[in-house]
Amino acid sequence: MIDAEIAWAAVQRRDRSFDGRFVTGVLTTGIYCRPSCAARHPARENVRFFVDGPTARAAGLRACLRCKPDEVGRDQQALAKAVAMLDADDAPGLEELAAAVGYAPHHFHRLFKRATGVTPAAYIRAKRGKRAEAALVNNDRVTDAIYDAGFSGPSRFYAETKGRLGMTPSAWKNGGAGVMIRWTIAETSLGPMLVAATDKGICRLSFDEDESELHRRFPRASIEPADPAMAELVAGAVEAVERPDRMPDLPLDVAGTAFQQAVWAELRRIPVGETRSYADIAAAVGKPAAVRAAGSANGANNVAVLIPCHRVIRTDGSLGGYAYGLERKQALLDREKAR
User: Which of the following is catalytic: 33, 64, 67, 203?
Assistant: First the structure.
């Protein structure tokens, strides 16, 4: 089923994340297009939406020569093949990757980034970083873990994972040893809020939690009460709850897989007062079939409100889930709409 209002809104903003989910039929010209087609928008009364190209052709329409809507399936197949190749231990470079899927390198580079939110090179770095995290847990020596993860040496590992792991390799291996995390409980109109931060930024923002949660997540980190230097971060976090239209751009110290990072980036793009479905988010990161995975990535968010996972609801309009209670989720949405 196609929601005509959502589809028309996607067409008006030329939203590439909806390509492949439906095609736009223009009755006056007899053609059908991708939602993102750059051609001039037709009048709404002349538009019909179809689930795919064959359905539109059965209605007597022909494919647009400008946006070539029937090639969306080819793009998706190429992306799936490319991701499988990049997930292999011996990942290819851009030219080899593009040749394998039948695209020019520069075109496929743009296609891959548009679909996943990251370049092929960044995708490989993220995969290596995740392998390194696992290797650091399973190896006694950091150097062995670096080589096991596929890096050519320690210098390359440090260069590629700087700022992504949120701590040094040794600290990761030792459950956060050597990392200082400061915390406080801030009072908000939605209840007590835990704010915790490293020297890089906020690493945990949650409701109804206390210091014990930090010890569980970072068992070997140094966990201390907030100092005066953290006051600005705390004030900004409270402002994000109380005045979402004035949400400050606060530094975050979070890490995740390439897919999780892409989902979190999409969450931060949702305007205040608006919501998206889990299916919308999956489509926006180039994986329309990965609705469950998008939901899992949404739930893996460690920084509530600042990465607004509460703005994601079910396709039928119901709230879905929320780690801190549906009443709090509804309250956040209500005040954002009011703003």
Answer: 33
